[in-house]
Amino acid sequence: MPLSDWEPVIGMEVHVQLSTRTKMFCGCSSDYLAALPNGNVCPVCLGLPGVLPTANESAVEKVVKAAVALQCEVAEHTKFDRKNYFYPDLPKGYQISQYDLPIARGGSLQVGERTVRITRVHLEEDTGKLLHAGDALHSAEESLVDLNRAGVPLMEVVSEPDLHSAEAARDYAIELRDLFRAVGVSEADMEKGQLRAEANVSVRPVGESALGVKTELKNINSFRALQRAVAHEIERQVDVLEEGGQVLQETRGWSEAQQRTFTQRSKEEAHDYRYFPEPDLPPLHLDGAWVSHLRQALPELPARKRERFRSQYGLSDSAARLFVEDPDRSRLLEETVAAGAEARTTANWIIAADPKLGPAHLAELLRLIEQGVINRDQGREVQREAEASERPPQEVVQALGLAQVSDENALAAVIEEVIAAQPQAVADFRAGKQQAVGALLAAVKQRTGGTANLKVASRLLRDRLSQ
Amino acid sequence: MASISELHDRLGRREISAGELLEEQLTTIEEQEPRVHAYLRLTAELARAQAQAADRLFREGGPVGPLTGIPAAIKDVLSVQGVETTAGSKILAGYRPPFDATAVARLKAAGLVLLGITNCDEFAMGSSTENSGYFVTRNPHDPQRVPGGSSGGSAAAVAAGEAVYALGTDTGGSIRQPAALCGVVGMKPTYGRVSRYGLIAFASSLDQVGPLSRSVEDAALVLEAIAGVDARDATSADRPVDFLSELEAGVEGLRLGVPREYFQVEGLEPGVRSAVQEALRRLERAGAELVDVELPHTDYGLAAYYIIAPAECSSNLARMDSVRFGLRDESAPNLLESYLRTRRAGFGPEVRRRVMLGTYALSSGYYDAYYLKAQKIRTLIAEDFQRAFRDCDAIVSATAPTVAFEIGAKMNDPLAMYLNDVLTLGGNLAGLPGISVPCGTSEGLPVGLQVLTPHWQDARALRVARAYEMVRDAA
Questions:
Q1: B386: pLDDT confidence band, cut at 50, 70 and 90?
Q2: Number of DSSP helices (H) and strands (E) in chain A, helices first
Q3: Is B46 helix (H, G, I), strand (E, B) or coil?
Q4: CB atoms < 10 A from the CB of B170, how many?
Q5: Is residue A296 part of a domain?
Q6: pLDDT averaged over chain B?
Q7: CA atoms within 13 A on the CB side of A92
Q8: Mean pLDDT of B331-343
Q9: Does residue A141 carry a pLDDT above 80?
Q10: In terms of CB atoms within 10 Å, which end of chain B has fewer, N or C?
Q11: How does DSSP assign A300-349, residue by residue?
Q12: Domains of chain A: total
């Protein structure tokens, strides 16, 4: 059967580090990258004998925010459980997680045209990191344990198997990232490990309703890798089945170097985590009024914001995406437009020039360009200076003497010089070669030290050459 | 031997200094230890510095409390900053916590002079202190016999005059049972009364820190110092702390519940039964009303306890993994071998048994049959107590079914050993406060009277025990 006769079925498990100030169960900073190895630890996150966890309220709040943004039902009663297994990056020998009473269940997320059902959202703690000195894990001379990350709050979002292509799996993860950024619960930067996506992949003949045997894909460090890993795995499973083989239920890693998946752990080696309720933490009661308040206080969510940017600002789909994935950028866009700038001009400028200006200064800069006081190149220079000095662009223009030359007499004189110096270009233009104007304008720009108002110069030049 | 308040008065009147009191204690320890073996390690140097600080306060009229300058001992499961704390286990040999347990910090703030760290069953798992990874502590009343456990070192130290008071921990009776066997007072407060932060966990939902002392008043004074909510323990409760104001209120008009099942347990020695019955008669004469109550699920308590406690311990002890602290077998060729060899070498047989029991009980496919069922029994037992307390103000019984038994007598029969906790572990399963107060002897060995009261009625348990102490001593 060709590939198109097979239907991929994909469910996702996404882990997201929450952007809280402190770790999940102790007072250490959750900014674990700032410290030297094992420099961001305390007796609690080191799992020393006798320590006890205390739950981070802000982390619970962020999970509830994410859950209501995913249209989940938030539990009134929830609790933590212990997930028991031995590994050196897990200091206590168990991870505090949630088993049968997660904070939220039963939501959905719109990904393009498709609705993906959300099974559950729960809260747990991150592990530390191992550094293997040597080439590979099994030949490592020694393994070093860094527990700076241990105990950072981690939210897990599990979806139903509602995705049916590698692209859809990627788009789902991107949509989650945009959502978490919009709601302010995580930076969700995949390259930094703040968002980790695992895909459960199986295939079945088109029209079949029973699910095939699934594999779980791990080690995926970017959206691109996610798409490639899932695509590769779909092809691999189809190949296995077409050759009369059977897909084995297992965990497979994605090798970025080899662009393929490989067996990590078979079903037989799967852990028995011996979950049981965490006796050190009392069950949590989530107040319904508080949850409703958080639901009502939700900001505009990405799908709606993208739509608004397209309709209200006339942005392209890709530009709208670029803004919505970065809440700081979209805020700058909206505030600059509110300060009087034109939306698309502003959007283009932000995408091209990545300004670090406030909306008032950016609107002023764009006005100076619009009014022809400076040209776009000068605009970049003014932006740099305004960013460095934090002075208004208008002042920068004056201080640098940058105002472009729009005076027609002054420009006419320069044009005469250029025409005299470049007879060949003049001749070309008159022979019908419109591009020759470019060379002449470049010369005008050069002779005015870049200050010429090129719009005015172009008009004057064309007038002069048509005489 | 002097009580805390007597010593406090003498210190206040400057009849004796904290330094002198300490040296007297160290002399007693030197005399008694070869016979008793209560201490795993002494902290004389620290104690001298603390005694000097206490003396400065008395001299300069600084703030002093009832415990200022009073020498005491701490069970080896409570973290003491910079002092080796091993939970009686070889696996933690050499481990020095970088922080104080909250109970220890509070005692330090109250003027503790720390004599040393007392022996206990490994990770508090045992009823005789024979499971210590280091040595066996002897009962001061008969060195051929056990002091009880797991807080056997603390009980023996107080009984032998080697400390004025001591801290212990009680998961199934580990304060009350050794107190009974050594003839001292021992109290397990309501679960949540005393912070567990820094207590090396055995079974988190059952463990409580409490005092062992020579008198009920001493126990109340120590409990006042260590009780109260702690932001580091989410299971600690914000409840008013007052254990002294009704201490001397007597038992007149109080209804004392006598649970039939507690007087019918397997192995209850006749001498223990009659000592307790005599104590109840005296309480009745002092004005208490004795009422019959029922605790119908008593028979299931032991089974439920020996599922729940091992299940929690199997998880709590997972951090003893050779990676960050304690023992490590450096010859291990890989990670798994490092775990296996270290834990085989570091854990004694009883700990290994309970870790295996607990791991099994939590395993996929067995959870419902064991752990979940045990939790249901736990609820039934808690409800038994709730019902019984409708008809009475406190429940009284023997603390342990036997007097101190001979060393080695039960080591090859874990079930017989476990049965020694059958009267105490119900209080842990239900989270109730309980106290053991000496009530005469059987075969020349101490017997303990246990008083259990409803949640947060710690003061009432102390009051009943104190009332008994008065009628006992008046006789």
A1: very high
A2: 16, 16
A3: helix
A4: 32
A5: no
A6: 97
A7: 29
A8: 92
A9: no
A10: C
A11: --HHHHHHHHHHHH---HHHHHHHHT-HHHHHHHHHHHHTT--HHHHHHH
A12: 3
pLDDT tens digits, B234-245: 999 999 999 999
Q: What is the mean pLDDT of residues B46-68?
A: 96
Q: Say whether both A262 and A385 belong to one domain.
A: no
Q: Is residue A109 part of a domain?
A: yes
Give which of A24, A28, A46, A48 to mutate to test B binding, by max B Cβ within 10 Å. Answer: A48
* pLDDT surpassing 90 at residue B17: yes
- Chain A residues with CB-CB distance to B123 below 8 A: none
Query: Nearest Cα to B203, choosing from B346, B399, B378?
Result: B378
Q: Binning pLDDT at 50, 70 and 90, where does residue A137 land?
A: low
Measure the CA dihedral A328/A330/A335/A338, to 10°.
Answer: 180
Q: Quick check: B201 contacting A, CB < 8 Å? A: yes
Residue A410's pLDDT is what?
80
Question: How close B282 comes to chain A (CA, Å)?
Answer: 41
Q: CA B178, CA B154: separation in Å to the nearest integer? A: 8
Give the residue extent of every domain in chain B.
4-226
**Residues A331, A267: one domain?**
no
Q: What tokens were used for A415? A: 């044009």
Q: Do A48 and B97 touch (CB under 8 A)?
A: yes
Catalytic residues of B: 75, 150, 174
Q: Does B333 touch chain A (CB under 8 A)?
A: no
Range of the domain at A445: 408-466
Q: Is A105 helix (H, G, I), strand (E, B) or coil?
A: strand
Say if the Cβ atoms of B325 and A49 lie within 8 Å: yes
Residue B450: C-alpha distances to residues A379, B188, B453 (Å): 86, 11, 10
| Whole-angstrom distance, CA of residue A317 vs CA of residue A333 | 15
Tell me: the pLDDT tens digits for B176-233? Answer: 999 999 999 999 999 999 999 999 999 999 999 999 999 999 999 999 999 999 999 9
Backbone angles phi, psi at B102, to 5 degrees: -55, -45
Q: Which two tokens mark A162?
A: 């509602």
Residue A247 near residue A212, CB atoms below 8 Å? yes
CATH superfamily to which B4-226 belongs: Amidase signature (AS) domain (3.90.1300.10)
The fraction of chain A above a pLDDT of 70, given in percent, is 98
d(CA B197, CA B343): 24
Confidence (pLDDT) at A266: 79
- Distance of residue B200 Cα from the nearest chain A Cα, in angstroms: 4
The encoded tokens of residue A247 equal 């897909």
What contacts 24+ positions apart, CB below 8 Å, involve A454-457? A454/A375, A455/A372, A456/A372, A456/A406, A456/A408, A456/A411, A457/A411, A457/A414, A457/A415
- Chain A residues at the B interface, defined by Cβ less than 8 Å, are 43, 46-55, 82, 84, 86, 88, 91-94, 143, 145, 272, 274-276, 279-282
Task: Return the bridge partners of A215, or none.
Answer: A201, A250
Beta strands at B39-42 and A284-285: parallel, antiparallel or unpaired: unpaired
- Gyration radius of chain B's alpha carbons: 21
Cβ atoms B382, B253 nearer than 8 A = no
Residues on chain B touching A275 (C-beta within 8 angstroms): 362, 367
Same domain (yes/no): A119, A169? yes
Cα Rg of chain A (Å, integer): 29
Q: Quickly count: other Cβ atoms within 10 Å of residue A372's Cβ.
A: 14
Q: Give residue B475's pLDDT.
A: 66
Exposure string (b/e) for A383-417, b if CB count within 10 Å is 16 or more? bebbeeeeebbbebbeeeebebbbeeeebeebbee
Give the count of beta carbons closer than 10 Å to the beta carbon of residue A457. Answer: 24
- B323 and A88 in contact by Cβ < 8 A? yes
Kindly determine whether residue A88 and residue B367, on different chains, have CB atoms separated by under 8 Å.
no
Extract the tokens encoding B411.
Answer: 């080591």
